[in-house]
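Review form for a predicted model. The reviewer records the input and the model, then writes brief findings.
Reviewer: anonymous (R2)
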Amino acid sequence: MFEEATAETISGAVRDQVATVMPPRPTIHTVAHEAGVSISTVSQVLRGQGRISEGTRRKVLRIAKKVGYVQDRRASAMRSGESREVGLLIHNIRNPFNAEVMVGVNSYLEEQGYLVFVLDALDDPVRQRRYLQTMLAGSLAGLLWVPATGTDQETIDWVRARSSTTVSLLRPMPGHPFDHVGIDSTLGASLATRHLLDLGHRKLAFLGGDHGSETIIQRIGGFATAMISVGARPEIVWPCAETKAAAMETTVSLMTEHFDVTGLVCNCDVVAAGATLGLSRLGLSVGQDVSVTGFDDIEDARLWSPPLTTVAVDPVGIGRQLAASLLERRANSHSPLRTVNLPVKLQVRESSGPPKGVAR
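Model under review:
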């Protein structure tokens, strides 16, 4: 007769078996014992503090690596009262621009001993509020935030009341209640538009942006201002989601209705890449039949076929500046709020050229 095994018996057996396979998790006590130093010495070495000799510091770090010790940052924060975690809330993780910004943020903060965790609000104010509540419920060293389109004043005030170290990115908010890192979107779009105008184009369309974010408004404004300056009409502005597939389909629709357009000023490089696919589907040659400009100069812009003419903003550099602004705010909590607008420049490549009939 077999005895009927209870859930408690099984779970106990599983625990015993796992214990024989997995050694106990190394602790700070393990490192101190192996290194022959005090726990406080190990703690100071791991925090980069105290007057510890270089030989001792190297020994502790070597032993910590040997035994596989991983510092519990949350526990350390609770003991010291200082968090080393930073939240980054973005609006579209699928856009390579945001991915490159994340690389810049993470590389800079990792160098300074911080851990970054990322949430994507998908440009949805409701989802954004839920994520903000989750992030700010715990102890954060700071918040980096690309506000969703339609973010209301109540949310802004709520964040301001709960996080003294917040830096916004790209989308400035009313009253500028936080430090901000941005770019001159108006100037960038104007540079791209003037480039096509200088090549001889007059029938241009702005493509991209399926909502009324401040960034989109600024880029459309730059496009319109440049067009009006040469007496051209900036009436063709087509919304488009920021994906290659959406831009490809939208470009086909746009060119079918406005077959005389010879240049597309796109809201971002992802849209520009999709636009080139749409033009190819129509049998049109990019840079010859129709010119295309992007915005961001992500890595793919240089590798695309043809390589994209685009407004270069250095997204990795933006991420590093964003992280630096946050740490400056932590170090100087009472200093005046600061806005940093990073430079933009036009990077000319093969996706743009004179319209047919105009000498190159």
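Findings: The CA atoms of residues 83 and 202 lie 55 Å apart.
Further findings: The mean pLDDT is 88.
Recommendation: see findings above.
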